[in-house]
Design goal:
Layout lengths: L3 H6 L5 E5 L2 E4 L10 H14 L8 E5 L3 H13 L2 E7 L4 H9 L3 E5 L4 H18 L7 E3 L7 H15 L9
Parallel strand pairs: 3-4, 3-6, 4-5
Antiparallel strand pairs: 1-2
Helix pairs in contact: 2-3, 2-6, 3-4
Length: 171
């Protein structure tokens, strides 16, 4: 999988000075619209590097928002199938955007919240595996259970500061 081209576009967002000496990074300028672009890229790249996903994988994720959009978009570029499971009270526009990137959206009853979406995603992964499809061909990324995504964001920002891409002043 070629993550390099995607990595070059995600995270290199503009920096603006919002006040004298206070800067902000415009994560909304990531290609798919949010800081969650970084999270989705990290989760996919990490899963690939650990051998959890491969070129034949179907990525399944329970999410209610921007992570799902970014996952669908990146999966399209990597030519992976992507299934996003979300509660049915999530705005219809999110599902439409995910679908526009080739992702499949499965809705669960809102009364069960994200827990219901997570349970459905887990059940789907088990069902796909039990249909004779290789176990590693459907993968739950489980972003909600992972704490490493915040560490990755911190690493990305620290790296950009050290490379001189983000201003740093000590005063």
């Amino acid at each position: 999988m070629n993550f390099e081209a995607i990595r070059k576009r995600i995270g290199n967002t503009p920096i603006i000075e919002v006040e004298d000496g206070i800067f902000a990074k415009l994560e909304s300028k990531n290609p798919f619209g949010s800081v969650k672009d970084r999270v989705a890229l990290y989760m996919l790249e990490d899963a690939y590097n650990k051998g959890i996903i491969n070129n034949d994988s179907t990525v399944i994720e329970a999410t209610s928002g921007n992570t799902g959009i970014a996952l669908a978009a990146i999966c399209k570029e990597l030519e992976l199938k992507c299934i996003i499971v979300m509660p049915d009270n999530v705005g219809v526009e999110r599902a439409e955007i995910i679908n526009s990137f080739g992702g499949t959206v499965i809705k669960t009853p809102a009364i069960f919240g994200m827990s219901g979406a997570i349970d459905m995603a887990n059940d789907m992964a088990l069902e796909i595996s039990s249909m004779g499809i290789r176990v590693d061909s459907s993968t739950l990324l489980k972003q909600i259970e992972k704490s490493g995504k915040q560490d990755r964001l911190k690493y990305d920002y620290h790296k950009q500061i050290l490379e001189g891409k983000l201003p740093l002043s000590i005063g």
